[in-house]
Amino acid sequence: MSEDQDNFRGLNWENVARVQIHSRRFGLLQVLSLDGCRTLSPTECAVELHTNVADASYHMAVLVRVGLVRLAHSVPVRGVEEHFYCLAGHSADDLLKRLKLPRTGR
């Protein structure tokens, strides 16, 4: 079984069904599950999915609401907070390494 399949095994498939798997939401789940799970902002997801940030943010919020994705960290950027999300069961250590942030125990 591939590493990506292992990552999808940890998803709550009942919650997946609840979001009625809109193609954008499924794309977000795929992007977040790549490379052993990643932690990304809606901006980064929008680039990878070739869509706009508002669309990625909206669908990310739906995934958070049903518990498939969680807010991993927020970083102040030009007077606003940039949010970073990961799959619900992911530790988000990849983001901490990428941004050189201390571990917070979330």
Task: Give keywords.
alpha+beta; Arc Repressor Mutant, subunit A; two-stranded antiparallel sheet
Structure write-up:
The chain has a single domain, classed as Winged helix-like DNA-binding domain superfamily/Winged helix DNA-binding domain (Arc Repressor Mutant, subunit A, Orthogonal Bundle), CATH 1.10.10.10. Strands 1-2 form a two-stranded antiparallel sheet. The protein has six helices and two strands, in the order H-H-H-H-H-E-E-H. A hairpin with a 2-residue loop joins strand 1 (69-77) and strand 2. The chain has helices spanning 3-9, 13-18, 23-33, 42-49, 53-65, 93-99; strands at 69-77, 80-87. The chain is an alpha+beta fold and 106 residues long. The protein is globular. The chain is 49% helix and 16% strand.
Beta fraction of the residues? 15-25%
The arrangement of helices and strands along the chain is: HHHHHEEH
- Sheet with the most strands, sense and barrel status: 2 strands, antiparallel
* Reported CATH architecture: Orthogonal Bundle
Q: Tell me the quaternary state.
A: single chain
pLDDT < 50 runs, ≥5 residues: none
Which sequence of strands runs across the widest sheet?
1-2
Distance linking N and C termini:
29 Å
Strand count: 2
CATH class: Mainly Alpha
CATH superfamily: Winged helix-like DNA-binding domain superfamily/Winged helix DNA-binding domain
Amount of helix? 40-55%
Structural class: alpha+beta
Rounded average pLDDT: 80
Q: What is the 3D form? A: globular
Overall structural domain count: 1
